[in-house]
Amino acid sequence: MVKAETSYAGDTQLEEALRAAGVTTPVDAVRELVAGVAAAPDGYEDWTVLVAPKADAALRSQLNALRAEIVVATDGMFPYGPAPAERLSALQAELTRRALDGFIVPRTDEHQGEYVPTRAERLRWVTGFSGSAGVAIVLTERAVVFIDGRYTLQVLDEVDTDHVEPVPLADKSPWDWVAETLAKGATLGYDPLLLTESSVSRYRKAAEKAGGSLVAVDDNPVDAVWPDQPAAPLAPVVVHDEIYAGDSAVDKRATLGAALVEENVAAAVLTMPDSIAWLLNIRGGDVPHTPLPLSFAILRDDGSVDLFIDQRKLSPGVTEHLGNGVAIQPPKDFGQALEALGKGGRRVLADPTSAASFVFDRLRAGGAEIVNGTDPCAMPKSCKNDVEVDGARAAHRRDGVAVTRFLAWFAERAPAGGLTEIEAAEQLRAFRFEDDLIRDLSFRTISGSGPNGAIVHYSVSEETNRKIGLGELYLVDSGAQYLDGTTDITRTIAVGEPSPEMRDRFTRVLKGHIAIATARFPQGTTGAQLDTLARHALWQAGLDFDHGTGHGVGSYLSVHEGPQRISKAGDTVALKPGMIVSNEPGYYKTGAYGIRIENLVTVVPCDDVADSERTLLQLETMTLAPIDRALVEVSLLTDDEMAWLDAYHIRVRETVGPSLDTAAQEWLDAATRPITG
Amino acid sequence: MVKAETSYAGDTQLEEALRAAGVTTPVDAVRELVAGVAAAPDGYEDWTVLVAPKADAALRSQLNALRAEIVVATDGMFPYGPAPAERLSALQAELTRRALDGFIVPRTDEHQGEYVPTRAERLRWVTGFSGSAGVAIVLTERAVVFIDGRYTLQVLDEVDTDHVEPVPLADKSPWDWVAETLAKGATLGYDPLLLTESSVSRYRKAAEKAGGSLVAVDDNPVDAVWPDQPAAPLAPVVVHDEIYAGDSAVDKRATLGAALVEENVAAAVLTMPDSIAWLLNIRGGDVPHTPLPLSFAILRDDGSVDLFIDQRKLSPGVTEHLGNGVAIQPPKDFGQALEALGKGGRRVLADPTSAASFVFDRLRAGGAEIVNGTDPCAMPKSCKNDVEVDGARAAHRRDGVAVTRFLAWFAERAPAGGLTEIEAAEQLRAFRFEDDLIRDLSFRTISGSGPNGAIVHYSVSEETNRKIGLGELYLVDSGAQYLDGTTDITRTIAVGEPSPEMRDRFTRVLKGHIAIATARFPQGTTGAQLDTLARHALWQAGLDFDHGTGHGVGSYLSVHEGPQRISKAGDTVALKPGMIVSNEPGYYKTGAYGIRIENLVTVVPCDDVADSERTLLQLETMTLAPIDRALVEVSLLTDDEMAWLDAYHIRVRETVGPSLDTAAQEWLDAATRPITG
User: Fold this and answer.
1) How crowded is residue B130: how many other Cβ atoms within 10 Å of its Cβ?
2) pLDDT band for position B456 (50/70/90)?
3) Which among A526, A531, A541 has CB closest to B609?
4) Which stretch of A85-94, A152-161, A492-501 has the lowest confidence by average pLDDT?
């Protein structure tokens, strides 16, 4: 995180400093660029190279001060709580001006990712709702916001329910609401850049069922009434070194191009920035916690790529790295390029579940024969190569040291009383940031004690921060982005003496965790097939948890990555060697405590079964930190389960121990002694 | 089974006898009716009531003799082995006459069921292939038959490979073959009554990809060249008593009609005879082993039904049972009725995965707005009411007695040597047929010893019949149709001393079986989620089985019923109370032996878990017969697994024991003693 140490001295001074550094860019253009940088989260990379590759300390300081000034202004845009009512009425007036009866305001951006840049926080700007998923439908006289089970309480604090009516998605889907509510003859607008093709077709059906119609708009009416809307983010794009990527971008492009030839497809449209980052071995920082360079791309069957990205955010050397096979184009030309692509009815691949309907509209306008299919990067990206898997192992060894140091510190500090959730999260962050390869946390740390631990997606804030008490459980779910790998680990720790119920529940969760960790399964098995193993011991006691057992994880990319996952949803994607997924069963008692045990695992061949008749796979646990022995009810474990736990603890001790100081080492020795010892 | 004891005396004598019995039907019409009866399998019901409700023994005997004469003629139509080559060439000549370049000959009939009447065995008549699934594509110069893994060997014995080329479905789908093989401009014909809507659309795409076209024919060209094609079957339709059905047909119609109103659908098209049988509380006998009255129906939103069925097959009293709400129509009027149904653009429900494309064609022709959805009978039919579940329990108790008697007999007889698979199956059948409520076996008994046991869908014949040897495993999978329930059970028995490997494999299969039998799971859980529990112990040793863990079972209906099942295919149908499914993990060692342990289970609430936080369900095992203790490797079982096996055996002993003779009882006592005893 780069903080401004000085205050901004003014444009004249900046102009002078720039000239001195040999930069000829006009100061207005520099201001625009810095506004883009300010619209991205704080990042690790030095962004000032985008302005002045050879800036001295004074100039860097001035640039950072300018950025800080803009950031402060942006922060004021999102007060905690309901958005000012005039925003909604301004939008409604704008709709009337455009002869629209309503407009769909999703939380998504053009790339349908989990994190969006500030510029795309239209839902929050209009309503105040800051959740990571949701959609508002604004009619001229009325507005509703649809939220999922995680946000039923939060939404009441964040929106003005006099003007915006919250609707739980469990009660009604937005399309059903539209079908029932839209007036006959009414027009419902949407931004084709913000909704997927499949989403639009559901809204269209609903609007037509109501006797109305769905209308695409060319420019977003929210943007029209949001005067100080932040710029598109311009975090520096950097090269992701082949020593981490394990394969050159040139080779990846060639392989994928050849696959398109095989499928008789002329080109594939890539709209997911993590696909583009993977394919081109680049990383960015446009959204929090995920090194994404927001961009679009077209991959052609000859392996060449058109990359639609703001050239200003390319750090020195990136253009050379990309090479001749990658043409850099301004994002505004993406639509035209899609139209041109379809000329002559060429077959073009696009993914209706992730690509904006805009992509399909423009392809169709150009005459393309659209082939609906999965993003061709998804599968090779998810099956990590040996270098990436080795990198992940190394990242987990170092992450394990940081987490174990934290656990030792916590074991010492917490029982004394007074430790808060925020302090604990900050200490864990500090241990992690001692590593040279760390670039960011991989998501906002979930640090929840007692009842807060039972909130699955808890995000600690000044308002909710608790002191961690004796007799409570503390749940910490955290991870980091290292150049060589992305981590994600959850540990649940008893502070003082846990209750028998807590031990029973923890042990059932542990049994599920071990069942996944030790499962062997034939090639072709899906994560959906494994999911039940994680729940069986809970089910037998009438318990369960309401989230997936595991999500895919990227290689210094998204901590939530598809298509692999372990979930009861009936996926058809088989687990393949090199895929990384989390193994994180849990149990949550509302108002009391939460339990989750999470390690990342990677799919590897299993060659050690004599007389095996099938090609077997298994999951190698990569995460290395002790599991709280005080919470294990030994009588519930089988001999095999005890053996797994003891062997895991020996591995943690042997791998992580040598990097600890003596006190932490002693703590670890005790924390990893045999479970029956 | 009704056998003719006399030979047919001639039409004149028959005419006289009919007149004496007060029957005025002309003898030609009687002959036609008997031909229909002869086209159905041997059945339990007295079909002669269809001709002469008050026939005396002499007349019944004459009628049976006439039927027997026709049956013999039909049997000659299907010699074992390749069909006479002139059938294929006659069909090819017919195609040329009709200016078709090819024709699709599926194994299915108009109802897409598992069993088809003789008349519909077009695939077998043309090629000789008698498998239960498959499709031929006959071009004017060439023919191929697509078969699945079960039939790769059998097809070589049954088709003339000089003229018909077998293609494993694993290598190529029929649509891919069409896309690659059909000539540009060529026309490929199909019978819209025999292919589903979804199947037709795949063939159409394939034909168009090849530059050809897919053409519906009005009458099937195979029928045109099959001079002695059997009639449509006319097995007697009888009332299924409410003491077994548990609910009146009037109530069922009213409930389903109301559900259509709810969905704003004017009518639903029913093409599955088991749905119609369930809805109207009737049963028939048109196909083997399943009491189906082949027919179509239209259910309207007022609960009334148009039943398209040959009136001649209705036994006395059925029309009265059906009542005013059910209009009986000739099958030939079905198409017109579909067209009429759509008038005014009414919304009509049809199931694209089970209804013939003919249904959609005619609905569209009439202007209907087609609502694609599941057959509305499917879900209520699968969730048996209390009377049906109690009936199934009772049927299983009696079936358990028959099976246990067989097992005791087998234990005595088999080790002496010389016993054949056919003899064993016949003895089992004989024990079952001592019951008053039995009507049929529920499928052809699988009676396989040694290597034959490893053939999952083994069907014993004179050619494959083996003597059951010492040191072998014997697998018997069988079931019966009782008025109060359908059964299906598999037991695997060691003859003499089993090998350690057999015991290891059997015990792993048993562990899977017990995991399903003891699973508790939250409401909403699908069979797909449970499937893994049945495989886990096998996977850990590198083993698996290549079939589903469980199929749905009807109530005196199909032994294979949807939508419920336990399968790794990612189903989204939740298991609901009253559903009956099989629990049948297995293991197969090709060329050596097969193992399968199958009980039927029904989904029931689970209320005995203290502090349960979820609405729990579990599976009640209904099948009652001992599991071979000699094959259990006790060291592989957990204490809980041993407890389950012992408790199950006590239940078998207490329930079945009292109905056995002393010798069988003694055997059962030994066979059900504690596993560690």
Assistant:
1) 20
2) confident
3) A541
4) A152-161
Residue B491 exposure: Cα atoms within 13 Å on the Cβ side: 23
The stretch A271-276 carries a mean pLDDT of 97
Rounded Cα distance between A171 and A152, Å, is 12
- Quote the minimal CA–CA distance from B204 to chain A in Å: 17
Residue of B nearest to A587 (CA): B613
Which of A522, A536, A542 lies at the smallest CB-CB distance from B616? A542
> Whole-angstrom Cα distance, residue A59 to residue A65?
10
* Chain A residues inside the 8 Å CB shell of B532: 529-530, 532-533
Taking contacts as CB-CB distances below 8 angstroms, the residues of chain A near B537 are none
pLDDT bin (cut points 50, 70, 90) of residue A337 is very high
Q: Hey, how many other C-beta atoms are within 10 angstroms of the C-beta on B333?
A: 13
Mean pLDDT across chain A, nearest whole number?
Answer: 95
Buried b (16+ CB within 10 A) or exposed e, A494-504: bbeebeeebbb
Which CATH topology does B386-670 take?
Answer: Creatine Amidinohydrolase (3.90.230)
Distance of CA A11 to the CA centre of its chain: 37
Select the highest-mean-pLDDT range: B110-114, B202-206, B227-231, B514-518: B514-518
Chain B CB contacts of A544 below 8 Å: 522, 613-614
3-state SS assignment for residue B251 = helix
Percent of all residues in chain B with a pLDDT value above 70, rounded to a whole number: 99
A chain contacts of residue B526, beta-carbon cutoff 8 Å: 568, 570
Contacts of A639 (CB under 8 A, 6+ apart): none
Residues of A in contact with B614 (CB under 8 A): 539, 542-544
Q: To which CATH superfamily is domain B85-225 assigned? A: Creatinase/prolidase N-terminal domain (3.40.350.10)
pLDDT per residue as tens digits for the range B247-296 = 999 999 999 999 999 888 999 999 999 999 999 999 999 999 999 999 99
User: Nearest CA to CA, how far is B590 from chain A (Å)?
Assistant: 11
Q: In whole angstroms, what is the distance from residue A91 CA to residue B444 CA?
A: 70
Q: What is the pTM of this model?
A: 0.93
Q: Distances in Å between the alpha carbon of A221 and those of A90, A97, A104, A190, A191?
A: 10, 10, 10, 9, 9
Residue B677 confidence (pLDDT): 67
Q: Which residue of A has its CA nearest to B571?
A: A570
Binary contact (A539, B530; C-beta < 8 A): no
From the list A544, A609, A638, which residue is nearest B522 (CB)? A544
Which residue in B has a C-alpha nearest to residue A606's C-alpha? Answer: B542
Q: What is the per-residue pLDDT for A677?
A: 67
Whether the pLDDT of residue A573 is over 50: the answer is yes
pLDDT given for residue A72 in this prediction: 82
pLDDT recorded at residue B75: 78
- With an 8 Å Cβ cutoff, are B614 and A571 in contact? no
Amino acid at B189: G
Give exposure, B258-281, as e/b (b: 16+ Cβ within 10 Å).
ebbeeeebbbbbbbbbbbbbbbbb
Taking the Cβ of residue A454 and every Cβ of chain B, the question of whether any pair is shorter than 8 Å is answered with no
Q: What CATH number labels B238-375?
A: 3.40.350.10
DSSP assignment of A112-144, as one string? --SS--GGG-HHHHHH----SS-EEEEESS-EE
- CA–CA separation, B20 vs B15, rounded Å? 9
Average pLDDT for A125-139: 95
B612 to chain A: which residues are within 8 Å by CB? 541-543
Which value does ipTM take for this structure?
0.90
Q: Which residues of B touch A563 (CB under 8 A)?
A: none
- CB distance A542–B529 less than 8 Å? no
**B574 contacts chain A (CB < 8 A):** no
How does residue A4 score in pLDDT terms, banded at 50, 70 and 90?
A: low
Do you find a cis peptide bond into B563, omega within 30 degrees of 0? Answer: yes
